[in-house]
Amino acid sequence: MCKYEWTGRRGGQHQCIVSKIIFYEDKNFQGRHYECSSDFAEMHNHFSRCNSIKVDNGCWVAYEKPNYTGYQYMLNKGEYPDYQRWAGFNDCIRSCRMVPPYRGNYRMKIYGRSDFRGQNMEMMEDCPDLHESFHSRDISSANVMEGYWILHEHPHYRGRQYFLRPGEYRRHSEWGSSSPTIGSLRRVTETP
């Protein structure tokens, strides 16, 4: 049985494509490595540093610290020969989470103040410059009704990244940010 995979029909038979990510200690896919095909909260026992990554299938979020905390990095299918290629701040990856395949609608409501108060706006599309649309860069709470989203610290999808699954986020600290400042947001649409 596959986990978080795309299943389809090929020649009358069901087909599984398993999501898989490979972490390498050294640049250019060298050194000790670890393969992962599901969420993993603590990877320190498997490698001491991470300088390159291959995503064979699926979308993943890699985290700087254990238990899905610290800097977050959205990784789509492809090769990342050094940590700068995934906008990494350092060579430390300690946990990862698979983004389940999703082909439905996207809907999120953002709020200027915590506990779903203040100025608000419903989002259904990517927004490269939040200040232009929302007239503020502060998002203090969010309700993700449909789909998976990435918030970016700066406009045009730059800076720190914050992964949001469906659910309620009463304050910015619940998605891992120390500040409510968000410059852009986008839907996670690249799945196998």
UniProtKB/TrEMBL annotation:
GO biological process: lens development in camera-type eye; visual perception
Keyword line: Eye lens protein, Repeat
MF GO annotations: structural constituent of eye lens
KW Glycoprotein (keyword) present: no
Region of interest: Disordered: 173-192
Domain Beta/gamma crystallin 'Greek key': start-end pairs: 19-57, 58-100, 147-189
SUPFAM superfamilies: gamma-Crystallin-like
Annotated PROSITE patterns: CRYSTALLIN_BETA_GAMMA (PS50915)
Transmembrane feature ranges: none
Gene3D superfamilies in the record: Crystallins
Family recorded in the similarity comment: Belongs to the beta/gamma-crystallin family.
Function (record text): Crystallins are the dominant structural components of the vertebrate eye lens.
Database matches in PANTHER family: BETA/GAMMA CRYSTALLIN (PTHR11818), CRYGMX PROTEIN (PTHR11818:SF107)
Protein name per the record: Crystallin, gamma MX
Protein source organism: Oncorhynchus mykiss (Rainbow trout)
Taxonomic placement: Eukaryota, Metazoa, Chordata, Craniata, Vertebrata
